[in-house]
Amino acid sequence: MAFPPAFIDEVIARNPIEDVVGQYVTLKRSGSNLFGLCPFHGEKTASFSVTPDKGMFYCFGCHKGGGVINFEMEIEGLSYGDAVRALAKRAGLEVPEDEQYQSRYRQQERLWALHREAARFFHSQLYAPVGASALEYARGRGMTQTTLTKFGIGYAPDSWSDLVDVLRKKGYTDQELRDSGLVTVSRKNGNLFDRFRDRLMFPIIDVRGNVIGFGGRIMNDRDKEAAKYLNSPETLIFNKRKNLFALNFAKKSKLGYLILVEGYMDAIALHQYGFDCAVASLGTALTEDGAALLSRYTDQVVLIYDGDAAGQNATQRAIPILERAGLQVKVLKMRDAKDPDEFLKKYGADRFKLLLEESASRVEYQLAAILRKYDLRDDDQKVKYLQESADLIGSLPSAVQRDVYGGRVAETAKISADAMHLEIERARKRRAYQEKKKQEKIDLAPARNLQPKSRAIRYTNIKSAMAEEMLLSLVLRESALLDHTGSLTPEMFSSQLLGRVYSQLKQRHEQGLEVSVGALADLTPEEMSHIAGILQRQTGPVNEQAMQDCIRTIQSEYQASKVTTEDDLLAVRDRLKERKGMKA
Predict the structure, then answer these.
(1) Could you tell me if 183 and 164 are in contact, meaning their C-beta atoms sit under 8 angstroms apart?
(2) What is d(CA 428, CA 394) in angstroms, rounded to the nearest whole number?
C-alpha cells in the first residue's frame, strides 16, 4: 500500500529541506532563498536555489527541482519509497509497514548484509592456507598490510561452493544468493555454484559504505579462456555505470581534485602512495552517470588512462563527457611506465607528483592527438592538421587561450602566427554562425519554447497548458483558492500530468493536509522538476480573479476539444452569439 499522506507530511516536516540539502551543498542566504552550486551538474556560478518556506529546491541551470523527498531521490539515486524511508530514518520516525517495504527495501538490506558477509569471507580466506599464493601475489604487487585491510582485499578459493555453503549457513536463501549475482546456476540441474573462483577479490563499496559488488582478478593466468578480471553482474544494489571504485575514500580527499584511472590496482597504488583522490571505473567506459557522480565531489579531474591505443581512445571519449558534467579536465601522459601502478613502484610518489604537476590541459592533449594523425612533411596533410586544430581552438571561449594555443600550432607547423590567427577566426565565426542559426530556428518557434524541457512531457494544447500551469502556481502559493475552483475537474486539463497534480492538490486540501510541491506523490523526477519549475517561473498577483481567468480558458479549450460534429459547431457558434449579445 502507499504511505499514508499524514505520514508523508510528518516526514517532510521533520526534514527541513535546507538541512537535508545542506548536507551536500554549501548554501548562502540571499533574501528569502538559499543558493549554492548545483550537486547535479557542474557549475561555477551558483544557480541552485532552496526556498525553505515552500519546502522546495530548483536549479536554474539544469532545471531539476522538487521537494525534500525528490532531492533525496536524486542525490542518492533512490526510488520514491526508499527516499521516504531514508528520510524517516534520519528523523527517527517509524515507517509504516507496507508490501513495497517488505519486497524491495528489505531485499536491498538483505543483499547489502549478504555482500558484507561475502567480503568478510573472502578477506579471511586471503590469510588462510588456501589463500597463500594470492596473499603472496598481493604483496608482490606492493600492497601493504594496511592497504589490504583498508580496501578489504580478499581471495575466492578455487572451489565450487565454498561461498554458497557459508552464506547458506548464515541463513541466506537460494533466491537471495541468485539475486546477489555471486553465484551461477547450473543449467543441467539448477544447482548453485560460486561465480568467483581462484581470484583476488576487490570489494566495490558505494559512497554510503555498503558493499554492493566485487571485482576479481584471476590467479591462474594459464587459463586463457577465463577473463583476467571478472565483475559482479547488475543487481538490485549494483549498477556499474553509476558507481566508481574507491570513491568512498576519494570523496574525503583534501587534494582538491580527483584522479580517474582504468583499473583497481592503479587506484589502490595511488592511495597507498598518498594520492587518496584516485577512483577507477568498473570495467566499463566512463558514462554520463559516472561523470555526474564525480562532479558532486570535485570540479577538476585528472585523467590517467593507459598509453595504448585503447586507453587513448577511451581518454578522447571521456573528455567531452566530463566537460558536459562541468568538470575541468587535465590529462596525464605516462612516461617510462605503462600505468600509475608501475610508475609508482619504479620512481615513487615524489616523481609522480612532478608528473601530475606537468599534466596537460585537455586542449594540449587533444592538439597532440591531432598532430599524431598527420605527417607535416606533406603539404596536404599539414593543411588538414592546421584546419582541424583551428576548429578545436576556435571553440575556446577565451581570446587569450586562442592566441596561446594558436601560436603553438603555428610554431609546430612552421607557419606565421597571423595566418593561424586568421584560420582560427574563420573557424570561430563559422561556429558562431551555426549556433546563431540554430538559436534563430528555436526563437522562430515560440510554441516549441513553451513546451516542457523534458521530452517525456509534451503539451498538446499550449493555450490550455499555460492556463493550467498558472492555476497550479496560484493554488500552490495560496491553497485557499482551491475552495473556489467550482466545477473544474482534472479531466478538463489538456495535460494529463497537470491534471494529476491538480487532483492531488485538491484532494489534500479537502482532507485538511498541507498543499505543497514536496507532498506530491507518484511523480517521476522529470515530472517533479517540471512542476517546481512552473512555481519558479510564474509571477503576478495571487487572487481569485486570476484563477477564474485560468479556469475559463481551461474549460473553453476543453469544450472546444470535444467538438466533433457539425451540430456541435453550430451549438458553439450559437453560444458565442449569445455571449456577444449579452455584452452588447
Answers:
(1) yes
(2) 4
